[in-house]
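Quick one: structure tokens for this chain, please?
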Amino acid sequence: MPKETKKKPEDELSEWSNEIMKTEKDFKKLKAAAMSFIKKTGAQNTAMHAEAVEIYKKEQETFDARHPELVKDLEKVNAAAHAVGRADVVSFYMGFVEGLANTKLDPEQLAQKIAVDMVTDNLELSAFMEQCKIHDSSLEPAAVEKDVKRLESFMAALLTLIKGISTTIEDLSKEYAECAGVLILVQHIIKMASPPYLALIKQLVIDAFHFASKKHRENDLAAIHFLVSAWDVHPKTYKTWHQIGHSLGVVCLATVGD
């Protein structure tokens, strides 16, 4: 009898993303697969944010070289008559589902199905970004105990934002099997971000400020730095929105909970 080959995390993630998961066991497997692309950082501060800003600038300069197929596809979306004005929102959601669940969507198909939802320039996203600002070590464990109000403000802003995003993800899940797993994660984020807040809120918010994509394994910078760095860029292009979506997905994964 042939020896069974152990599946890679990304293969397991792909399988679970292609069917609706209804049990807690299924959810934990999905989360574990998504988490395999994430790492926790050490203590974060404003100096690290300045470093992330410079890294992000360099990444923007090499975006085309690093994502040639994505750029080509999004340029097609930009040029398509049926998708005028949709490249930003398409890019945002492509980045979000990749950051949250390492799931890739086809941009041209997405442009045909997605509504022109204005997550990309609404007040909810702006309000959440204000909660993402790094204030030296104010989100380190010792300080969190004394700042419950800020923890609740962070989760309340996230809840409002993620509810808007969930509407689009739910619609997409009806069209794309790949979004089934993403929807489950989003639904759990809503559950964890909803009051009444439990003691777990402290660790969830701390993690949100200390989660990073493994692609930045050469440094110790949390994704939230890159989220704010991209948000502060003006004017924003679809490339900017891809980074905002991707970093937001990583930050949100920290608040999924168990």
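The CA atoms of residues 24 and 258 lie 9 Å apart.
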